[in-house]
Structures are given as C-alpha cells and as structure tokens.
Design the sequence.
C-alpha cells in the first residue's frame, strides 16, 4: 500500500480569501503619484466651492449657513453599527463626495442655494471624474495584473474615457429628473388654481409609481456610484452605460457581498486614516516644538495663534503685530499644504478601495478572474522596407541543339566537287 500523504508547503491566501487585496490599498494610496493627483484634486474642489459661493450665495448665507443634514447622519442604524464610529478614509471620502448631490434634494433650499449645490456637485464630478479615474485605473491594473502601469499611459487612458467618467453618474440622475418634471408641472397647476390640488389627488397614485422608480434609481446610484469608475477603468468596452448597468447589477445582485467588502474597507480605512492624521499632527507639532526652543514660551503661542489664513484680512492693521502676522500667514500656507496632503490621502485611499471592491464584486457576480483587466496593446512601429537597387534580369541563352547521328536532309547535304584530269 503506497503512502500518498504530501507536505503542505504554501497556502495561497489571496486565492482562498480574495478580499485580502483590500489591505493592499494603503501601500498604493501613499504612492507619491497618487497622493499628488488626489491632493491637486482636493485643492481644485475647494477652489470650485469657494468660487461658487462668491457668485451664487448671498452674504448672509455665506456667513451663517443654515444647518445642513449630512448624508452620514441618514445611514441606517443596522448598517452604521458595523462601521467605525471614528473617521475612516473610506467612509469620509464617500460622504464628502456624495454630500453635494444629497443636498440638492433638500426642499428648503431657495434658487441660489440650489444652484450653488448643483454647481458644486458638477464641479466635483468634473474634477474627480479625471482624478478618480487615474487612481482607480492604477488600482485595478496593479491589483489585477500585479504590474505597475506607466503614469503617462494611465493619464492617456483616462483622458480618452473622461467623458464616460463624467456621464456615468448622470445617467440615473437624468432619469430622476425626467420623472420629476411631470410632478413639478402638477405642483405648478396647484400653485395657479385650487383645482390643481384635486387633480394632484387624482393622479397621486402615478406619483407613487414614479417614486418607486426614482427610489430604485437613487438607491442604486447612492451605493453603486464608486463602482462606475472601476468599470470604466477595467473593461475593454467601459463606457457610461456599461458602468451604469454593472454597478446596479452588482449592488442589487449581491448586496451582502458588497456590504461585507465595504465594512472591511471602512475598518481598515479607519486605521489608515488614524495613521495619516497623527502623522500630519506630528509633522506640524514638531515644527512648533523645535521653534519654541528659540522663541520661548511667550512668542511661540503668539505665532501659533497667528498661523491662520484668516489673518490675511487683518494684515494691514496697525496693531503692532504686522510682522508676526505676516510670518504666521506664511507658516499657515505650509501647514495648509500638510493638511491638504492629509485630505488627499483620504481620497486616494477611497478610490483605491473602490477599485479593489469592483474587482471583487465582478468576480462574485460575473465570475471573471481578477487579472481580466483591459490593457491596450502597444502599437508596433511601422516597418519601412529597405530600398535595394534593381538588378537586371538575365536573358536566358538559347538551348544548345543536341548532337545526333542521323543524316541531314537531301537539300542540306554538301555537294562534292570532283576534279577531272585533262585528256
């Protein structure tokens, strides 16, 4: 009887537990190129919000904005109890990007406030359509093929599909808008005449049906929009419609799988965010600690208080603090850069996690392997044939006539001349 026992030498944990790729997102999120892209996008997002506030909001609302409900506060208790109570790079990035769209649907907004949130939503979508595309493209290629794509090739790939990144979330929103237009017309009739209320009551059953469709669209968009970027970044035919259909299919096809991956990413994101946050605090605090050795206990708190960009408006006040205020503002610029990079890491982690979760959901729903990521083939350089001088074609010589022993024809026989002697 033969002994068929073997020795277990290696366990492929990533094949047994594919969701372990989520724990690789931290290393990818802190790469310099992705941090640069995310930090630049955060700065552009802040700039758009600031510019929109100048042109679209009145002065009173800028100074004392009304309390705005946050999307995070609307998370169901059954879900939120599994999420970390402290900040997480995954959840904070998600809610910060989704909040402007959520606020558009508030009923208490006036026209200027609604226009402001629409502008901020579209501006954020335009900025993160490109930046999020770069990060998710890098994530799906590196997690799927175990290769690091070239940065220029990644930017080129995203630039060619930028329109799809931009339009994919607008597909379900456009459906919601079309459903709301007849209901808005019904409300306008009620505003004109009291008969509109009777008409609304008669037609309200159709409003309920429209609400069912709108709820399906909004729920799929609310949970599935991060997967849209992964679809466009990973698939050969990744366009806006495929991103819309795949994200909704994954969310409604296996919601518990999606919830599990999201919880794992949120828990790991809380640890990653703590590392980034305390690293930034140590960097800033180290500077003031070393500065206090020379400045003393009196000047250091003074300059620390003035290290705020809001002090720009008091720069020219003659209160004896002009030089200290100028130095504090310059310090605030450097401190603000550290904070900006910290926020950039949060969004970099979020998009890396979104790419990883997309690959996992695609494997669960479509049964596609992780490494099935579209990578455009390199176009070979055109081959130029070598030009050679034309050589003359030799003219064949006539074939020789074969020798034969047959006598020649009579007309071709030689005539013999006989010489006769004289008599």
Sequence:
């Amino acid at each position: 009887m033969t002994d068929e026992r073997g020795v277990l030498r290696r366990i492929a944990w990533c094949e047994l537990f594919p969701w372990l790729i989520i724990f690789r997102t931290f290393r990818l999120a802190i790469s310099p190129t992705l941090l640069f892209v995310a930090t630049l996008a955060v700065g552009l997002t802040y700039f758009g919000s600031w510019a929109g506030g100048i042109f679209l909001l009145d002065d009173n609302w800028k100074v004392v904005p009304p309390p705005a409900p946050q999307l995070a506060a609307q998370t169901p208790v059954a879900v939120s109890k599994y999420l970390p109570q402290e900040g997480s790079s995954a959840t904070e990035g998600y809610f910060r990007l989704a909040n402007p769209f959520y606020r558009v649907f508030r009923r208490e907004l006036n026209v200027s406030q609604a226009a402001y949130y629409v502008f901020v939503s579209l501006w954020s979508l335009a900025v993160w359509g490109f930046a999020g595309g770069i990060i998710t493209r890098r994530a799906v290629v590196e997690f799927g093929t175990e290769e690091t794509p070239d940065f220029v090739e990644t930017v080129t790939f995203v630039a060619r599909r930028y329109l799809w990144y931009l339009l994919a979330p607008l597909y379900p929103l456009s459906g919601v808008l079309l459903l709301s237009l007849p209901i808005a017309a019904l409300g306008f009739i009620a505003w004109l005449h009291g008969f509109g209320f009777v008409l609304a009551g008669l037609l309200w059953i159709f409003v309920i049906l429209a609400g069912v469709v709108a709820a399906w669209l909004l729920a799929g968009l609310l949970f599935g929009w991060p997967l849209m970027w992964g679809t466009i970044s990973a698939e050969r035919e990744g366009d806006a419609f495929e991103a819309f259909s795949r994200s909704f299919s994954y969310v409604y096809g296996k919601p518990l799988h999606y919830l599990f991956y999201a919880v794992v990413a949120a828990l790991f994101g809380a640890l990653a965010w703590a590392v980034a946050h305390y690293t930034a605090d140590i960097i800033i605090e180290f500077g003031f600690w070393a500065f206090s050795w020379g400045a003393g206990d009196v000047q250091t708190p003074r300059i620390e208080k003035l290290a705020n960009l809001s002090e720009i408006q008091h720069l020219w006040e003659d209160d004896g603090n002009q030089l200290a205020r100028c130095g504090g503002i310059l310090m605030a610029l450097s401190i603000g850069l550290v904070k900006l990079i910290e926020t950039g890491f949060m969004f970099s982690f979020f998009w890396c996690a979104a790419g990883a979760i997309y690959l996992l959901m695609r494997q669960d729903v479509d049964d596609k392997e992780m490494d099935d990521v579209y990578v455009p083939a390199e176009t070979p350089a055109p081959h130029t044939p070598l030009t050679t001088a034309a050589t003359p074609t030799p003219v064949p010589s006539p074939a020789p006539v074969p020798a034969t022993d047959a006598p020649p024809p009579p007309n071709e026989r030689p005539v013999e001349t006989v010489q006769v002697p004289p008599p």
